[in-house]
């Protein structure tokens, strides 16, 4: 049984220590491209050369040791070498001076842009615009490949529901469907439909799998996950990535149900290769093979090399386990050469797909294609569409005749921090901040600039007093709050996700001036901002918006651009609500009659709160729901019409709804289709996103959106781990967020 297999893996991989090979390495069971070339090359390779292809090292420039290793054929890939002349020189050693001339592949974490930085992926998710995400990946690939990077470790497809986890910044939020759609778009942007073009990069679907569910939102932590949840929530974006031809995958650091993913042939071979038919290349995460020793799964590095190679990790990133131990393991019969061959095939196939055998060098005449007008324009549009207007009492857009504008707060002019996590190649001098863009737009005389706090964790009370005194002279105050880049991303988790430092105190001081306050928040996660939302006349949540964040924000605040971002994750009121997500089960006692702690009577009876599912201090539900986002115009949803009230499990149904722009300016709306399977042999969530469309409407314009769902879209994984569409009643909404709208019903018969 599958579930038993997940638990049994630890035992199975332990057997390898005793020299029993429990996997034959037949991980490319499907007929694939380049088979003839691969087999011919493989037949000429020594065992050392094969193992060399499985070894990924960090670039250190053109040292004697490195060129020697490349000539000897003991390096398959290099990370983080970004100088095109050095890339070519190293490549020449591989292609012209190694025995078989197998090219290297150069890789890098190009996660949301190379030089031109787009919003962090979580921000890009807020665009709900796959075309824009694809365009951003195309820009990233064009810039990075112009220095020789042909493989990026992106997209991160980890569905995550706990903003304590710093890496939530790198993914597309909490929903498997939204993540699948945007992940597919990003892969297409990196790879195009022809990976052999020199301006593409191989995508890497990471981290396989369930890393986003690290317990307590703490990085690298263990994951506990029933297989049905794994298959319905965690794996769909990866399955979609495999189907879209993602050239590589990366396995994750975590264990799932006590089995490190690097040891899980169930995940890496049975599901990914045999069930899904994927024939790409699997890289370990940085040192993740080695980490099976402290994880308590392997006795030493040698054991880890045996376990990972048998499980199906093709390339060893920075553990040096394969290069040091695989030869001995093969010679002693503990790992078969057939297993090694299976891994090598996948590495060679990637190099063929990328066209590296034909075209291994960077064209130096067109190298360093950075910051083109089109690239900067794309980054600005992405930053504009990623901004979510959470609240607005009418203060935004700013009135044209506003005389003096106070620009304040720690993120108002933070070139480094507005770019967010994973920006190795970002250059501050190309980043435009909100202060710069607003000064350009309104003129220096109308701007009063005073940061108050100079960084997000600052508690400088004197700075707050000075800024509030300055801000009091303005007609409107723009408060740029949030988190520095370093407060999210890998290994940067927080147990309290409120605004750091004295920013809330600063907002109170700004409010006390009596002037309207617009709060713009830059962050790598959902922050808890219940008080801040009340204190502000409007809140614009821009995540970390990247190179062109400043112009985008100025366009949004001034009304030149109408906000259209929608939350890709649920925003909690308090950290203690985490994990918080809209697709939760109803429970047998859904919240009702909530009594909050301050309203409890003295010596109240234990049952006086009605015994339903809520917190005494946080109540129930989010501060802002998944899918939420306002516009400067308003939209009205007509009734949902269904093509049928009954469908067969293998049938289909079309739902449509007319949406009207009822305001006075053009705007974009994201129509979101949710369903609920009312009764299931496994209890189903209260809502699940199944489709969406972003449309732009002129004032007064109406448009019908239509979505067709197949029976398969209604399926889920049952207790026997079978995907089934169960008969019964379903609810369906087409709505502006995950809580709004009137449901209609249909039945699967
Ligand atoms: C991260 C990966 C990243 C790799 C290479 C690891 O620490 O988990 O996401 O791709 O480093 O830089």
Helix and strand arrangement:
Blueprint: H1 2-15, H2 35-44, H3 47-53, E1 55-58, H4 64-71, E2 77-79, H5 84-97, E3 105-108, H6 121-125, H7 130-145, E4 151-152, H8 176-191, E5 204-208, H9 227-234, H10 236-243, E6 248-251, E7 255-256, E8 259-260, H11 265-275, E9 281-283, H12 301-311, E10 316-317, H13 321-331, H14 337-353, H15 373-386, E11 388-392, E12 405-408, H16 434-442, E13 447-450, H17 461-471, E14 476-482, H18 503-511, E15 517-522, H19 530-535, E16 538-541, H20 549-558, E17 635-637, E18 641-642, E19 646-647, E20 652-661, E21 667-677, E22 688-697, E23 702-710, E24 716-717, E25 723-724, E26 728-735, E27 744-748
Parallel strand pairs: 1-2, 1-10, 2-3, 3-4, 5-6, 6-9, 12-13, 12-14, 14-15, 15-16, 19-27
Antiparallel strand pairs: 7-8, 11-16, 17-20, 18-20, 20-23, 21-22, 21-26, 24-25, 26-27
Helix pairs in contact: 2-14, 3-13, 3-14, 4-5, 7-8, 7-15, 8-10, 12-13, 15-20, 16-20, 17-18
Beta-D-glucopyranose (BGC) is lined by residues 109, 153, 206, 285-286, 490.
Q: Looking at the structure, what is the overall shape? A: globular
Helical fraction equals 25-40%
Topology, number of strands = 27
Strand order of the largest sheet: 11-16-15-14-12-13
Poorly predicted runs of 5 or more residues? 1-31
Outline the structure in words:
The protein has 749 residues and is α/β, with parallel strands linked by helices. It is 29% helix and 17% strand. It is built from 20 helices and 27 strands. The protein has a 6-stranded mixed sheet with strand order 11-16-15-14-12-13, sandwiched between helices. A 5-stranded parallel sheet has the order 4-3-2-1-10. The chain is globular, with a radius of gyration of 27 Å. Mean pLDDT is 95; it is low at 1-31. The structure holds beta-D-glucopyranose (BGC).
């Amino acid at each position: 049984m599958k579930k038993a297999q997940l638990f049994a893996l630890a035992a199975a991989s332990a057997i390898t220590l005793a020299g029993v090979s429990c996997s034959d390495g037949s991980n490319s069971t499907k007929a694939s491209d380049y088979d003839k070339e691969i087999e011919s090359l493989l037949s000429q390779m020594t065992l050392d050369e094969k193992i060399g292809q499985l070894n990924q090292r960090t670039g250190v420039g053109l040292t004697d040791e490195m060129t020697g290793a490349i000539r000897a054929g003991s390096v398959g890939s290099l990370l983080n070498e970004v100088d095109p002349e050095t890339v070519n020189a190293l490549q020449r050693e591989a292609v012209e001076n190694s025995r078989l001339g197998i090219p290297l592949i150069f890789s890098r974490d190009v996660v949301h842009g190379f030089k031109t930085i787009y919003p962090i992926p979580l921000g890009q998710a807020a665009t709900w615009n796959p075309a824009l995400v694809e365009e951003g990946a195309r820009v990233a690939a064009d810039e990075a490949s112009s220095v020789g990077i042909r493989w990026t470790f992106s997209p991160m497809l980890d569905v995550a529901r706990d903003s304590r986890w710093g890496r939530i910044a790198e993914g597309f939020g909490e929903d498997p469907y939204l993540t699948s759609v945007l992940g597919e778009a990003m892969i297409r942007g990196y790879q195009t439909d022809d990976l052999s073009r020199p301006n593409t990069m191989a995508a890497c679907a990471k981290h396989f799998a369930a890393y986003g569910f690290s317990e307590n939102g703490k990085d690298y932590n263990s994951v506990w996950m029933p297989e049905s949840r794994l298959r319905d929530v965690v794996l769909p974006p990866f399955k979609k990535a495999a189907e879209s031809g993602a050239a590589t995958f990366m396995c994750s650091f975590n264990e799932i149900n006590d089995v490190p993913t690097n040891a899980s042939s169930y995940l890496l071979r049975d599901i990914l290769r045999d069930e899904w038919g994927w024939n790409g290349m699997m890289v370990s995460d940085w040192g993740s093979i080695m980490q099976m020793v402290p994880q308590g799964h392997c006795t030493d590095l040698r054991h880890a090399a045996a376990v990972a190679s048998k499980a199906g990790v093709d390339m060893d990133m920075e553990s040096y386990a394969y290069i040091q131990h695989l030869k001995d393991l093969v010679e002693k019969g503990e790992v078969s050469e057939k297993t090694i061959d299976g891994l090598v095939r996948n590495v060679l196939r990637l190099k063929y797909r990328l066209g590296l055998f034909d075209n291994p060098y960077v064209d130096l005449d067109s190298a360093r294609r950075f910051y083109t007008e089109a690239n900067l324009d794309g980054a600005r549009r992405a930053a504009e569409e990623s901004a979510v207007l959470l609240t607005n009492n009418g203060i935004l857009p700013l009135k044209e005749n506003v005389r003096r504008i106070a620009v304040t707060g720690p993120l108002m002019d933070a070139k480094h921090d507005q770019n967010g996590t994973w920006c190795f190649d970002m250059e501050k001098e190309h980043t435009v901040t909100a202060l710069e863009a607003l000064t350009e737009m309104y003129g220096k005389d109308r701007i009063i600039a005073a940061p108050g706090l100079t960084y997000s964790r600052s508690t400088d009370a004197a700075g707050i007093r000075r800024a509030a005194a300055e801000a009091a002279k303005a007609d409107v105050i723009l408060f740029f709050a949030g988190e520095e880049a370093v407060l999210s991303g890998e290994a940067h988790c927080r147990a309290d996700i409120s605004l750091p430092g004295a920013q809330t105190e600063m907002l109170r001081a700004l409010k006390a001036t009596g002037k309207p306050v617009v709060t713009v928040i830059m962050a790598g996660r959902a922050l808890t901002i219940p008080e801040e939302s009340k204190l502000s006349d409007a809140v614009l949540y821009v995540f970390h918006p990247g190179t062109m964040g400043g112009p985008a924000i100025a366009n949004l605040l001034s009304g030149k651009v109408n906000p259209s971002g929608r939350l890709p994750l649920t925003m909690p009121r308090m950290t203690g609500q985490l994990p918080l997500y809209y697709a939760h089960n109803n429970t047998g006692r859904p919240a009702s009659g909530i009594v909050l702690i301050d309203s409890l009577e003295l010596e109240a009876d234990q049952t006086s709160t009605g015994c339903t599912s809520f917190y005494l201090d946080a109540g129930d539900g989010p501060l802002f729901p998944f899918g939420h986002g306002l516009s400067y115009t308003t939209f009205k949803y007509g009734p949902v019409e269904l093509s049928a009230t009954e469908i067969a499990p293998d049938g289909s149904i079309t739902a449509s709804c007319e949406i009207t722009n009822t305001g006075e300016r053009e705007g974009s709306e994201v129509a979101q289709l949710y369903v609920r399977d009312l009764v299931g042999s496994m209890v189903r969530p209260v809502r699940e996103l199944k489709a969406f469309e972003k449309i732009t409407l002129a004032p007064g314009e109406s448009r019908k959106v239509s979505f067709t769902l197949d029976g398969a879209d209604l399926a889920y994984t049952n207790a026997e781990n079978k995907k089934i569409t169960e008969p019964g009643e379903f609810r369906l909404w087409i709505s502006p967020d995950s809580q709004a709208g009137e449901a209609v019903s249909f039945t699967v018969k």
